[in-house]
Amino acid sequence: MAAVTKYVSNFLSRGGALAPLGVVTQVRHGGGGPILPPHKGRAHPADAPSWAQTAGAPIRQGLKNYYIYNELKDVAEALPKEVPFAHKVLIVGGGCGGMAVARNLARKFGEGRIAIIDPAEHHYYQPAWTLVGAGQYNMADTRYKISHMVPKKIKLYKAAVTEFVPDENHVLTDKFGKIKYDFLVVATGIKIDWDEVKGLKEAMGRDGVTTNYSPNFCELTHKMIRGVKKGTAIFTMPPANRIKCPGAPQKIMYLAEEIWRTEMGVRDNVNIKFITANPGQFAVKKYADSLNKICDERGLERTYKSNLIAIDPDKREATFKRVGEGSDGSTFTERYSFIHVSPPMSPPDVVKKSPLANEAGFVDVHPTTMIHTKYANVFGIGDCTSVPTSKTAAAAAVEAYAVCENVFGASTAHTLHGHYDGYASCPLVVSKNQCIMAEFNAFTGEPWETFPIDQGKPSYLMHFMKKYVLPVIYWEAMMRGIWHGPGLFREAFAWLPPFLTAKKVQWVMKDSQERAREQAPAAASA
Ligand code: FAD
Ligand code: UQ1
């Protein structure tokens, strides 16, 4: 009897006898794979307005009701009995973006519908690693067990995804085999490509070579800074699109310089160099100007369009290649007594080799809806995606809003309300009690600030935010799925007493006028 039931159910689940009558019997999880490739025949993000058109639009108005997922309604209905692991929403990666999405969706969908896959023991609050490297924060306070962050209503698989099979709505894992889903959210972050810099892997952690980009070396950074007495200290940075938190490579330079100057009294003996593959100090002019001013005041040398390609720890030499527009591709070598390396990064290989990746290996998503450009039931969030933003937790917080709204909207009301607006932020700590709170629209390159002060200036209040307030926002709000960036505060502050609002408007106007003058010098002088 059981065999007959199984046969009938298999027959029906493959579209079988009722299909010609127009009766929807397909479920995606038939043993032989889906009849209908998951992305076929549906409205698709490609039909949506381009991200440039919607960038900066208020979140809730972005792509509201833009297109309708009729078929997702049908395919999302039933989960097959024969598949041991199947979930409404499967989230790959329990880091910053993945956890924020999981906790939010678990509240929306309820018990047992959401699952996270992550092989890691710990979740890290990476934004504090810069402070750890400067001795201002405890490493232990940046980590928390993933299993303790996941409430019972979310299923946690402690495993790594080894293959994405989006045409069949499943992933393969190293410990649990096949896991199926209705919706997939890819949140694997990016990993360090140690091998791209010759000799780096062997050099790490010895003879003055360190990085804040790995939890294994942040505490060592502080120890090594304290060990510097004289010589040259180098701080490197790869191309901005190969790194997360593009401010971090220089934040540690300002903090180290302060330690050498004010605490150790060795500043006069240390030559400090920031050597970056990028053409300037920061992508947003307003903050680049402030940072350049600080560098000039504090005697910090800058070399642009120069990418670290090799390290020789025995000779304490670093080799750089001239890159970018107008460069001749030549190399030069610098001796160091201390070097803070910000290594190049990219998505894990499992993402790069999957059908989800674009040419550069990032999960290819529509930059405002966060929906995959080919697979309509696949979403991406955070550092691993192709979204042209600054890879930060701040951006991921707003992206999480778009992902959660759109996953839930697609599976229930079949509408897409969620919209990532390009917001990104980078708290540029420039001393142990001062910070420039850079906030901007990464799509347009314009400042997009929250507070009623000139955020281009170093401020005590913003350092307090960075060190004491943002960690609480992260652990208590973002990791519970209820922080989607400071947009509401930005709007609330606009209602402050008119003189404050007017002051802010003045600062913003000044910035954009300066930019306009630079872009059209002839017109401005006419
Ligand atoms: P992650 O948080 O890195 O999480 C990725 C998760 O995916 C990990 O748990 C990993 O184990 C898991 N994973 C990987 N491969 C697999 C697999 N095959 N299967 C299953 N799971 C997998 N941002 C700010 O907003 N402000 C700051 O001041 C700031 N400062 C920073 C300073 C430093 C030194 C660093 C390193 C980062 C900083 N950031 C900052 C950036 C911020 O931490 C990242 O942008 C954010 O963590 C990205 O989140 P994510 O979810 O994309 O990736
Ligand atoms: C932010 O939202 C965020 O995620 C929680 C960060 O990571 C810790 C940040 O560093 C920043 C700056 C923001 C933006 C929030 C404010 C209040 C400016």
From TrEMBL:
Transmembrane segments: none
Residues covered by the FAD/NAD(P)-binding domain: 88-200
UniProt subcellular location: Mitochondrion
Keyword annotations of the record: FAD, Flavoprotein, Mitochondrion, Oxidoreductase, Quinone, Transit peptide
A GO term for molecular function: FAD binding
Coiled coil: none
InterPro entries: FAD/NAD-bd_sf, FAD/NAD-binding_dom, Sulphide_quinone_reductase
Cofactor: FAD
PANTHER family listed in its UniProt record: SULFIDE:QUINONE OXIDOREDUCTASE, SULFIDE:QUINONE OXIDOREDUCTASE, MITOCHONDRIAL
Protein name, as recorded: Sulfide:quinone oxidoreductase, mitochondrial
Organism of this sequence: Vitrella brassicaformis (strain CCMP3155)
Lineage: Eukaryota, Sar, Alveolata, Colpodellida, Vitrellaceae
